[in-house]
Design goal:
The protein has 188 residues and is α+β, with helices and mostly antiparallel strands. The protein contains 3 helices and 12 strands, in the order H-E-E-E-H-E-E-E-E-E-E-E-H-E-E. 21% of the residues lie in helices and 45% in strands. A 5-stranded antiparallel sheet has the order 3-2-1-4-5.
Length: 188
């Protein structure tokens, strides 16, 4: 009989733990790179994730606030789960007050016209306290800077890079230098 009581207590505890987990899964906060937006949704690539997550946007005030945030900026999104869909409850852009700068970091992702760089700490390791940021080439004569675009194409994910940047509505690469090629994990 005592064993039955302990088993029942364990099942109840598991049930309560499951309910607590389910409650936590209905809301959350994420900080990451705003990679896409339209009137009905945004997509945010969270720190350390390979893919962006889509969040629904409802309400004119929220849509107006999102319209003012440039794609590629860092954002913090508070979300709730509604009808099996993550919905934006609030959004805040994280804007670096500096108008220009240089960062040395790990190239963690890239596209034809952007790079994502995770800053390094003083020991040359990815800085756990710093966010990965997205940088795009500057515009020159109606097109993205050809030299920077070529440097992005040549750089390999996993390389250590130095990025010199300026800010308009987003951070723009003015110079990109590879300071260390990626380590080949397959070689010994």
């Amino acid at each position: 009989m005592q064993a039955l009581k302990w088993a029942l207590a364990a099942l109840l505890a598991l049930g309560l733990a499951g309910a607590a987990w389910a409650e936590d899964a209905t809301k959350g906060t994420v900080t990451g790179i705003l990679v896409a937006k339209d009137k009905a949704s945004i997509s945010v690539k969270a720190e350390g994730e390979k893919e962006a997550v889509k969040y629904a946007v409802a309400g004119d005030d929220l849509a107006a606030a999102i319209k003012k945030i440039a794609i590629t900026n860092l954002v913090t999104v508070v979300w709730t789960l509604t009808d099996k869909q993550k919905c934006v409850a609030s959004i805040e852009a994280i804007i670096d007050p500096a108008k220009e700068g240089t960062v040395t970091g790990l190239l963690v992702a890239k596209g034809a016209n952007f790079i994502d760089v995770k800053p390094l700490d003083k020991d040359g390791k990815p800085d756990a306290k710093a966010s990965t940021e997205r940088y795009m080439p500057k515009w020159h004569d109606g097109a993205m800077d050809k030299d920077v675009t070529a440097a992005i194409a040549a750089a390999k994910v996993g390389a250590t890079v130095q990025v010199t940047w300026t800010r308009d509505e987003r951070k723009r690469v003015t110079a990109l230098t590879v300071t260390a090629e990626p380590k080949d994990e397959g070689k010994k």
